Amino acid sequence: MSQRDQLDVKAPVMEVFASFQGEGLFAGSPQVFLRLAGCPLRCVWCDTPGSWELTPAATARVRAGAETRSEPAWVSAEEAKRWIDEVDPTGRMAVSVTGGEPLLWAEFLLALRPLLKRRRVHLETAGAHPLSLRRVLDACDHVSADLKLPLDMEAPTSVGFTEEESSPSTDEEWQRARRALLESIRDRDACGKIVVAGGHPADVYEALFADVSELAPELQLFLQPATPVGGVAGPTREELSGLTAAATSRGLRVRVLGQLHRAWRLP
User: Fold this and answer.
1) What fold is seen in the domain 3-264?
2) What dihedral angle (degrees, nearest 10) is formed by the CA atoms of 232, 236, 240, 243?
3) Consecutive sets of 10 residues in the chain, 267 residues long: mean pLDDT of each?
């Protein structure tokens, strides 16, 4: 059964809250965060593993002002829009749709976009599902896409229903997905993020830099030091300096930016 038939254009919301963007091109901007649950990918440095699984009895946290309450997680775009308006009654904050992997819920995103009216919609995605991205691209005002290092990826896991697009698992599949992603966002309001863990030789990033240089040379690229979690170490200053030099030597627009919300102890 397809996602559309099974869920009637609903998606599992994990939480809705207002905070400051801690990553990427809009770091420091106040935004409403709509976090959707469910992700088939297994990044070794993932800092939100609680967003991986889907359960029928899951609940969503809605943080409006000083109040936090629980609601049933599986909701329509209309209900999600009401929660967003509760969190930001001004109607002006951009909405960062994150996860999990929001591209699992393309129909939901397409249903949500017209309801948000003047709000900007910023999509945060792992970049592993380029066909789904193309479907929703015109509904997004900004795309913040990860460029995954296959070395940091464990085997993908089923999320419990028939996925419309399979997840990459081999180095070759990851490169195909990455190149298709870059072709889609190269002329868009977008940025790319590469999470940098400690201990990797610099040359394992060369394929990523080469693809950006060839397909999206004007893309703003962020090297994001991994937040130490689950035994994964952050990079040294020397490792970051070497990667920055390698990217710059290709003429890429590169910055180093850690997870600011972690430093600020914000959600």
Assistant:
1) TIM Barrel (3.20.20)
2) -80
3) 54 96 95 96 90 86 94 96 97 96 96 97 96 97 96 89 84 97 97 96 95 98 89 92 97 92 73
